Every structure is written in structure tokens, then in C-alpha cells.
Amino acid sequence: MLKDTIIKRRTVRRFTDEKMPLETLKELLMYASMAPSNANAHPVEFIVVSEKEDFTYLAAMDRFGAKHLADAPLAVLIVANKDVCKYWVQEAAMTTAYLDLLVQEEGYQAGYLPFHDNTTDKNEDAEAYVRDYFNIPDNYGTLGILSIGKKDERVRTRKEFPIDEKIHENRF
């Protein structure tokens, strides 16, 4: 049930070496691609990352936020063709959220790292840092990366919280 998946989903930054099978990942990417899309444009595409040298490069961009990528077994870069849809950021974000929940439902966990509107430790544009290395065309935006695997850490259980103070009827 989706509600249970949402409650159980937590960001994970340490993984075992176990990789999700590529066929399973492809199936999840297909379902994630069914996220809402303006005029059915579907500008979002994926780069599956599984090579150690690629993870080492990504981890070097940020001592704190990206270092977990050095040991990730698998990750997915979420990119989108900006020529296809001006709402590429929103669509890529929805697709990423779908993928995150699908990964959890499949018995794996994920950790997200944003590149769009972000910088590296050396104050470089994070999107450019990734775009150059992975040969991503200039007309593609790079939203972020989702590392995927079996968790190798304890994470706190999420609890429901009172929502009433965050709900405004008709006006703020």
C-alpha cells in the first residue's frame, strides 16, 4: 500500500554491495516515467551509473553531501530535455519522487542528491560538473542523482505528525 511505502521510506546513504538487477531497475524507470507530464511531453531521461570510477568522480564534488556516492552500488542520474518542456524541473522532480517510492516498494532504499541550482565544494555549478563528465548535451537539465541499494545502516522510523497547522482552507 502506498501509505505504508511513504511511511517506511527514509534517505539512505550507506549501502551493502548488493545491486538491484538491471531488468528490475528498467521496470521501475518505466513506471516512474508515468509521472504527470505537461502535454504528455515526457522530457525526463535517465543515466544508470554503476562504474566505481564514476562514483568516485561524483563523490569528489562535495565532501559532505556526495561522499556516500563513492560506495553506492548503483545510481540513476535524472536528466530532462529542456527543449521538449519548459517545466522540466517539475517533471523531473515528480519522476524522481515516483522512482524513490518504487525503489522502496521493491525492497531497496535510495538517497537523493540535487544538482540543479547547486554547487560543488569548489563553488562550481554542479550541473556543469556532471554534464561535462557524463557527456550530457547542453539542452538537457540535470536535476540530481538517486543512489539505490540495500541499506547498510540504521535509520529512524518516520512517524506521522499533526498536519492541521499546515493546512489552510481557501486562503492562507
From TrEMBL:
Keywords, comma-separated and alphabetical: Ligase, Oxidoreductase
SUPFAM superfamilies for this protein: FMN-dependent nitroreductase-like
The Nitroreductase domain, residue ranges: 7-53
MF-aspect GO terms: ligase activity; oxidoreductase activity
A Pfam family recorded for this sequence: Nitroreductase
Domain of life: Bacteria
Xref: Gene3D superfamilies: NADH Oxidase (3.40.109.10)
Family, as annotated: Belongs to the nitroreductase family.
Protein name: F420-0--gamma-glutamyl ligase
Protein's organism: Urinicoccus massiliensis
